[in-house]
Specification:
This protein has nine helices and ten strands. By secondary structure, the chain is an alpha/beta fold. The strands form two sheets. The protein has a six-stranded mixed sheet with strand order 6-7-8-3-9-10, sandwiched between helices. A four-stranded antiparallel sheet has the order 2-1-4-5. The chain binds adenosine-5'-diphosphate (ADP) and magnesium ion. Magnesium ion (MG) binds near residues 57, 58, 174 and 175.
Length: about 260
């Protein structure tokens, strides 16, 4: 941690209680994007949120990242309520999604530096971390290229570095590999695993069954905003005769529909 202000008050931990979000949509009326979702995730664990497009993953994660206010329920991240202490929550998390936008006119290095400064880090610490992370993600070649000149995979790397620069104890990844080639995806998957191994509490959303099998210690299956199951990946697999996450998932979703 870089300064006492950024230190977590308790070990990385996420506790979600009856979290709900209803959107009022002009055409569709009330959309219950997230309905009464509860789960816990611990330090040193990857908790996967598995669901098809439109299931409610992004809405749930945006609430946890304090970018959306819940309609009902609450969540605590490192002991801080998303309703009552959103700033404290933000200091303790890194949130990454494919929709994360970058400023095209800044270079990769400038972009990351800027976010480090926003997080209250000192310049020396920022530069040390940039060096470390740009090496880890093999980014030195394009460190000084403008973001609008970068490929999708390169941009995604900048987004990741930007979110983890302040070394937060809780990481929230919303479909971080969407649209990426196999090599870039693999770098990101390895990094998510490293976060877990460093003792971070990692939330990871995906619609890709193999990512759950490879990565997640526990899984919440989300469908139509509701959590259909929340259990160890092994338990989820054992629900199907074939022992695959996909068969277990499909059976569960069909039963719920
Ligand atoms: N701002 C919004 N206004 C209205 N409906 C929304 C809004 N954001 C998301 N939704 C709806 O909420 C549901 C869940 O969406 P989302 O959380 O993006 O799902 P996922 O990330 O799992 O694909 C969808 O039906 C989506 O259309
Ligand atoms: Mg989404």
């Amino acid at each position: 941690m870089n300064s006492p202000a950024l230190a977590p008050v308790c070990p990385a931990h996420v506790s979600v209680k009856n979290l709900s979000k209803t959107f009022k949509d002009r055409k569709r009326g009330e959309v219950k994007a997230v309905s009464d979702v509860s789960f816990e995730a611990q330090s040193g664990e990857i908790f996967g949120l598995l669901g098809v497009n439109g299931a409610g993953k992004t809405t749930a994660m945006r609430m946890l990242a304090t970018m959306l206010y819940p309609s009902a329920g609450d969540a605590e991240l490192c002991g801080h309520s998303i309703r009552k202490a959103p700033e404290q929550v933000r200091r303790n998390i890194g949130f990454m999604s494919t929709a994360t936008s970058l400023y095209g006119r800044l270079t990769a290095r400038e972009m990351v530096r800027y976010f480090g400064q926003l997080n209250g880090m000192d310049k020396k610490k920022i530069d040390t971390r940039i060096d470390e992370l740009f090496t880890l993600f093999d980014m030195h070649d394009f460190a000084d290229a403008r973001c609008d000149k970068l490929s999708t995979g390169m941009k995604q790397k900048v987004s990741i570095v930007r979110t983890v620069l302040h070394d937060p104890p809780v990481m929230i990844f919303d479909e971080p590999t969407a649209g990426l080639d196999v090599l870039t995806s693999r770098t990101i998957i390895d990094f998510v695993r490293d976060c877990r191994d460093q003792g971070k509490c990692v939330l990871f959303s995906t619609h890709i069954m193999q990512e759950v099998e490879k990565l997640c210690d526990r899984v919440g299956v989300i469908h139509d905003g509701r959590l259909l199951a929340c259990e160890d990946t092994a338990t989820l697999k054992a629900r199907s005769a074939s022992g695959s996450v996909e068969d277990a998932f499909v059976a569960m979703v069909e039963e719920a529909s």
